[in-house]
Structure formats: C-alpha cells, structure tokens
Amino acid sequence: MQVNFEKAVKTLIEKWNEITDGRKPIFVRIIAYWPKDYDVMYIACISCNELDMHDEKRFASFNEAAKWLASKITAMIGDEFYGVQKDKENA
C-alpha cells in the first residue's frame, strides 16, 4: 500500500489543531540540503512552544522524513487525546 506521507502530515496537523482547539500550534518542516561531496539529505523538524518541545532528525529520503513527522504527530495526538480524556474522567 502506497502512503502519501506529505498528505498524511497535513491531515495530522489539522487533527492536532482540532483536538487542541488551536491553543498548541505545532510547526513542522523538512529541509533538503546537499553537504559537500555527499548525496542529498533531509532534516525533519517539529516544534511546539506550548509543550516546550523541539525535535529534529536527518534522513536520506523525503518520504522517510515525512513518515517520521507523521509518527511524531500521531504520538502527540494520542498523548493529548488520552490526557484530555483522563482529565474529563477525573473531573
């Protein structure tokens, strides 16, 4: 099954904004660079000031970078959703 990770990242960001009501904006990017005498590399970055979180990693392909971002955002959504659910149960 072919997955369009670029579209998946966009959809996950929209879901994140929906769950957090836009109160915890996240910033993601993939930067392509060509180090001298090496093949192209990609740096995937994700940050959320509200969560005091910044993470980045280097990859050999764009799809690997986008897949990693999708994974990170999915984990954030899970943490946020279950945290919200737990707060509602304790109220």
Any overview of this molecule?
The chain is of the alpha+beta class and 91 residues long. It is 48% helix and 24% strand. The chain has helices at 5-19, 62-90, and strands at residues 27-33, 41-48, 53-59. Strand 2 (41-48) and strand 3 form a beta hairpin. 15% of the residues are buried.
Which shape, going by the Cα principal axes?
elongated
Classify the beta-strand content into a percent band: 15-25%
Largest sheet: 3 strands, antiparallel
Q: What is the average of the pLDDT values?
A: 88
Q: Point out poorly predicted stretches.
A: none
Please list the strands of the largest sheet in the order they lie side by side. Answer: 1-2-3
Number of strands: 3
Q: What level of helicity do the residues show? A: 40-55%
Q: Report the radius of gyration as a whole number of Å.
A: 15 Å
Q: How many individual helices?
A: 2
Q: Topology as H/E string? A: HEEEH
Provide the fold topology.
Blueprint (H helix, E strand, L loop, with lengths): L4 H15 L7 E7 L7 E8 L4 E7 L2 H29 L1
Antiparallel strand pairs: 1-2, 2-3
